[in-house]
Write a structure and sequence with these properties.
The protein is of the alpha/beta class. The protein has 10 helices and 6 strands; from the N terminus they run αβααβββαααββαααα. α2 crosses α4 and α7 crosses α8. It binds zinc ion.
C-alpha cells in the first residue's frame, strides 16, 4: 500500500496523518493493525470516530508516544508517536503503545475544553476512578498510583493501560514474567490483587465504555453524541 493510500484508509477512523510519506512501510502496517483492533471493539471505523473525534497523527524521530488533548489547530487533538516505539520486540508492543494514546484521546473527548487545555482528565477517567474503588489498574504504569499515592494524572494512565490490557491480553501475558510487575501491589498495600492483570471492576468498566459506543454505532441514532 502506498503512503497516500494508507493515509486515506485511516481517514474514516478520524485519523489525519501528517506527512504520510515519512512513515516506513512496516510502521504504516503496525498503525493500521492497532487502529483496526481498537475499531473492531468499537463497532468499526464509524464507532472509533464517534468515540475519539478527529485526531492528527504525527511521527517523531525520538521519544515515546504522547497526546496533546488540546492542539490549537483543527482537528484540535494531536497524537505523537516516537519512531522507537514502532520498532520493539515483540513488534505488537508498538500497537499497545498506539492504542494507549488513542485511549487518552477518547477520554479527552469527554472533557470540556478548559479541562483539555489544562491537561485534566475527562468524564471517562473520573468515572473509572469512582467505579473501580480500591482495585488497582492492570500494570504498574497504569496502576493508578504515583509512588504510594493515587493521583488523577496516574488515573489517566490507569485508563489508557486498561484499554491496552483489554485489547491486548498478550500484553499482560508478556509482562507476567517481569518481577517489577508482580511486586508493586504489595508495595502499595494491595497484595490481595495479584498483578499484572485486568481486575474484574476494570474489565466491567472498560467493556461498558466499548459496549455503549458499539451499540450507538450499530443501531443508534447517527446524530447522537456521547461527548457532551
Ligand atoms: Zn499515557
Amino acid at each position: 500500500m502506498t503512503a497516500d493510500r494508507w493515509a486515506q484508509e485511516l481517514r474514516p477512523y478520524g485519523l489525519l496523518v501528517v506527512a504520510p510519506e515519512t512513515w516506513e512501510e512496516d510502521e504504516r502496517a503496525l498503525i493500521l493493525r492497532a487502529v483496526q483492533r481498537m475499531a473492531q471493539a468499537l463497532g468499526g471505523a464509524e464507532g472509533m470516530q464517534r468515540a475519539l473525534g478527529n485526531v492528527r497523527l504525527e511521527k517523531r524521530k525520538e521519544g515515546g508516544g504522547g497526546l496533546y488533548a488540546f492542539w490549537p489547530r483543527p482537528p484540535w487533538m494531536r497524537i505523537l508517536i516516537g519512531a522507537p516505539i514502532l520498532h520493539q520486540q515483540p513488534e505488537w508492543l508498538g500497537e499497545v503503545a498506539v492504542v494507549h494514546e488513542l485511549a487518552h484521546a477518547w477520554d479527552a473527548r469527554t472533557a470540556n475544553i478548559a479541562a483539555r487545555v489544562l491537561g485534566r482528565p475527562g468524564r471517562i477517567v473520573r468515572e473509572l476512578v469512582r467505579f473501580v474503588g480500591e482495585e488497582p489498574g492492570p500494570t504498574w504504569y497504569g496502576s493508578g498510583f504515583s509512588g504510594l499515592r493515587r493521583t488523577l494524572r496516574a488515573a489517566g494512565e490507569q485508563w489508557a493501560e486498561t484499554v491496552a490490557a483489554y485489547l491486548y491480553p498478550e500484553y499482560i501475558a508478556h509482562l507476567s514474567s517481569c518481577p517489577a510487575e508482580q511486586e508493586w501491589p504489595q508495595r502499595v498495600g494491595l497484595a490481595e490483587h495479584p498483578r499484572p492483570g485486568l481486575g474484574i471492576r476494570h474489565r466491567i468498566y472498560v467493556e461498558g465504555r466499548f459496549g455503549e459506543i458499539r451499540l450507538l454505532t450499530t443501531n443508534g441514532d447517527p446524530s447522537a453524541s456521547l461527548t457532551e
